[in-house]
Specification:
heterodimer, A: 7-stranded mixed beta sheet, 4-stranded antiparallel beta sheet, globular, B: mainly beta, 6-stranded mixed beta sheet
Chain lengths: ~110, ~120
């Protein structure tokens, strides 16, 4: 399996607190993505990165920020968690962009109470 | 803009029966199309992908999909379902060319396989 790990795997947090999710890869892939998965919506793109310090917004980026200071790490921060951000978050990596397909992490289940 | 529609959020088949999961896409450029499978509490795994080399694409676990441009479809099939095929399946389309593109996913189809 491709080396991509997400941490934590599960987290419960309170409304209004900041939360950071980590995606770590050992494949040296240039492209990294954060998606959220919700029933009936499939996966929706939050943010993506095409290199160190190069990031851009996806379709559901409000309330989220990202950082990529090293090739291997892509961090997703919920600045002030809300109940609508309760979801399963997936990180994905790609060697050459979406046309190559993605490799996904195992996901982080986040509950905001 | 690119988009994907998966017809049927739930599909139920008997073990040994044909599996047919439907996907229609909309794309302003020649599409790259994908099927992913997600088993419970796991991430998504690539089943197969279409990249214009051949219209009939074979994937893992006996699945295949046929690209039909005239119907803008990329339906997933398997001749004989196994219990282990029970999972959620996602169709996806790339939103463009080059490295800055992303995958756009459908809402998913949950496949149940009954004995």
């Amino acid at each position: 399996d491709a080396g991509i790990t997400q941490s934590p795997r599960h987290k419960v947090t309170e409304t209004g607190t900041p939360v950071t999710l980590r995606c770590h890869q050992t494949e040296n892939h240039r492209y990294m993505y954060w998606y959220r998965q919700d029933p009936g919506h499939g996966l929706r793109l939050i943010h993506y990165s095409y290199g160190v310090k190069d990031t851009d917004k996806g379709e559901v980026s409000d309330g989220y920020s990202v950082s990529r200071s090293k090739t291997e790490d892509f961090l997703l921060t919920l600045e002030s968690a809300t109940s609508s951000q309760t979801s399963v978050y997936f990180c994905a990596i790609s060697e050459g962009g979406a046309n190559y397909g993605y490799t996904f992490g195992s996901g982080t289940r986040l509950t905001v109470v | 803009a690119q988009s994907v529609t998966q017809l049927g959020s739930h599909v139920s088949v008997s073990e040994g029966a044909l599996v047919l999961l439907r996907c229609n896409y909309s794309s302003s450029v020649p599409p790259y199309l994908f099927w992913y499978v997600q088993y419970p509490n796991q991430g998504l795994q690539l089943l197969l992908k279409y990249t214009s080399a051949a219209t009939l694409v074979k994937g893992i676990n006996g699945f295949e999909a046929e690209f039909k441009k005239s119907e803008t479809s990329f339906h997933l099939t398997k001749p004989s379902a196994h219990m282990s095929d029970a999972a959620e399946y996602f169709c996806a389309v790339s939103d463009g060319a080059g490295g800055y593109n992303k995958l756009i996913f459908g809402a998913g189809t949950r496949l149940a396989v009954h004995p």
